[in-house]
Write a structure and sequence with these properties.
alpha+beta, 17 strands, single chain, 17-stranded mixed sheet, globular, 16% helix
């Protein structure tokens, strides 16, 4: 199916599918489905480039002044003045608010004094996709090497989801299994976890993702104020990952230098506090035989950059300084030899260190001589 004038190309191919026990209750606005099964389906959604629908103005065309004047006059007569519109809103504030917030004809019914309609409730016991394929991107786009968001292809795609619930803005589901191979060559063997969003907040529980060489685990919970970015919204997050740079290179070939080929990088991230004030945050980064780095800190006024305050402590052990020097940008190549002499101990190339840093946006100034660490 292709649409116009905004060109989109949507295609669905489904050799085998099944829906088991579907019930629709119109009076209570409920949909209940026991299971959905899709085998060997193929789905594609492609859109025209952003500038495809734009046409350059015809500089040779001469506008008809009389037509333009008539259109302006008609528009002026049809549109009420700002004063009139303001008076109308003042006279009926409740009705105006309902109209502004209406998102469907059922909501608009509240303007006439009727009780607002209940949102639809949808429950699906399970959804399974076996050996499917998915394409999403831009029409006639030539994808770049690695991951290209303008042309995403997942094939084959296997998905198993259950306990699906939706009512208005409330969503809940559990991913039992997700496996696919992306066009870039990255394969996800399995992903699983539970997601929920309701009046109490948003949560991601027990999320795990595994590839042939890497793995990620995550837990995140945020209070009800997260949708409106309220500073006092409680927030906790924990993430751990073991990443092989070869798989990162599949997605972003230019990101991984030769010195990082086939390396394991382990990351642990944790945060607790509120959206505005992180009371405790930690980041650990390590690579076997090369580096161990730990960062612990706090942050205040995250949503107010002009009042941002942060403090962090860095601790690390660098077991192979030559490896780190190889990561320097090419522009610093001339400084590598000096750095190797000044900073890399000759006996083994090892060096532990610690650093304490603070930042206060309200007190940004140059330190006095007494505050300089290199002054007596």
């Amino acid at each position: 199916m292709r649409t116009a004038p905004a060109v989109t190309d949507l295609s669905v191919r489904l050799p085998d599918g099944e829906v088991d026990s579907c019930r629709v209750l119109l009076d209570s606005r409920q949909v209940s489905v026991k299971s959905i099964l899709l085998n060997r389906g193929g789905y594609a959604y492609l859109t025209a480039p952003a500038d495809a629908g734009e046409k350059a103005p015809d500089k040779t065309a001469v506008p008809d002044k009389r037509t333009a004047s008539n259109k302006t006059t008609a528009r002026s007569k049809a549109a009420p003045s700002d004063k009139t519109a303001t008076q109308g809103k003042a006279a009926h504030p409740d009705k105006t608010a309902a109209a502004d917030n209406a998102s469907s004809p059922h909501d608009a019914a509240a303007d006439d004094g009727e009780a607002p309609a209940l949102p639809w409730t949808v429950r699906v016991g399970s959804v399974a996709l076996n050996d499917n394929s998915l394409e999403y991107g831009t029409l006639h786009h030539r994808p770049a090497a690695g991951f290209d968001p303008a042309f995403i292809v997942l094939s084959p795609l296997d998905l198993s989801v259950d306990s699906i619930y939706n009512r208005g803005a409330d969503i809940a589901l559990r991913i039992r299994r997700l496996a696919f191979t992306e066009r870039s060559g990255l394969s996800v063997r399995n992903a699983a976890g539970a997601f929920a969003m309701d009046s109490t907040g948003i949560s991601l529980s027990g999320f795990e993702l595994a590839t042939p060489l890497s793995g990620i685990r995550a837990e995140a919970h945020a209070g009800a104020g997260i949708m409106r970015m309220a500073p006092d919204t409680p927030l906790t997050a924990d993430l751990s990952a073991s990443l092989n740079t070869e798989e990162i290179k599949l997605l972003y070939p230019q990101l991984i230098p030769a010195a990082l080929d086939d390396r394991i990088v382990r990351i642990k991230l944790s945060a607790a506090g509120t959206l505005g004030d992180i009371k405790k945050a930690g980041l650990d980064i390590s690579s076997p035989r090369h580096i161990d780095l730990a960062v612990n800190g706090t942050a205040k006024n995250l949503l107010a950059p002009k009042r941002l305050e942060a403090a962090a402590r860095f601790e690390g052990e660098f077991r192979d300084m030559a490896f780190l020097l190889e990561l320097l940008p090419d522009g610093l190549a001339a400084a590598r030899d000096d750095s190797r002499t000044a900073h890399a101990p000759r006996s083994g190339g090892r060096g532990p260190g610690a650093l304490l840093a603070r930042f206060d946006a309200d007190r940004r100034r140059r330190p006095t001589d007494a505050e300089r660490p290199d002054r007596p």
